[in-house]
What does this fold into?
Amino acid sequence: MFRAVTDLHPIEASVIHARRERVFLVLAGLFLGSMTMLNILGVSRFIDLSFEVGGMRIPMALAVGVLPYPITFLCTDFISELYGRARASAVVWVGLMLNLWVAGFLWLGGALPPAVELDPVTGLPPSDAYDFAFYRIRMLTMGAVVASMVAYLAAQLCDVFLFHFWKRLTRGRHLWLRNNGSTVVSQFVDTFAVITITHFYAKGLPIDPDRELWSQLWVYIGSGYVFKVVVALLDTGPFYLGVHYLSRWLGIDPSAEHVGD
It folds into this structure.
């Protein structure tokens, strides 16, 4: 994939320019693919990762859509570090448009003939109908799309802003600070927003009406946030190594963005 380029397209100024664009394409592709996947998977299933500490059970319910989410922050951190804030922000906006594109086709797929008889209570066809799986995914995705888009936009722009704020403040030093600091804050913004909006706006969470509401919401918020933060801390090493080798291979000086700041 990353072998030396010998046959350059006229728009590629040099081998190093072609190499930089190919790496950017991979990072942007991973980001956009992960964003699309998590928005479709969403809250379609919750994984029970509860555990015990000192005889006390710690509840942890993780939405399956959260699993690919930490990859998106790692990708934007790589793009921010190597290509600058403008490109990172552009990828975030493209991700927003791509998810709206997916939501549009999910809506269209359900609106086109033949008309399907839906249960007025569940909004779904019979469970043994061929269309059931599509309408179930459509309902969950469309119901949570506002939550995920608001949370996504707020968190990703927060991540890019904080990453460059700390990069500028430290004059390009302390890579661990901007990598973890930006992600830890933005992950909480995302998790809190997506859980609360999904419940209060989309009614898309499996809430027990006989139990206190916020205690259940905080389990979902805490579970998602802990998972994202743990993964973010674990990716510090790969991020350091990636920036170290990619900056050399691509001929990029990450600190050059803030020379003269």
Summary: The chain has one domain: 15-258. The CA atoms of residues 78 and 243 lie 7 Å apart. The longest strand covers residues 46-48.
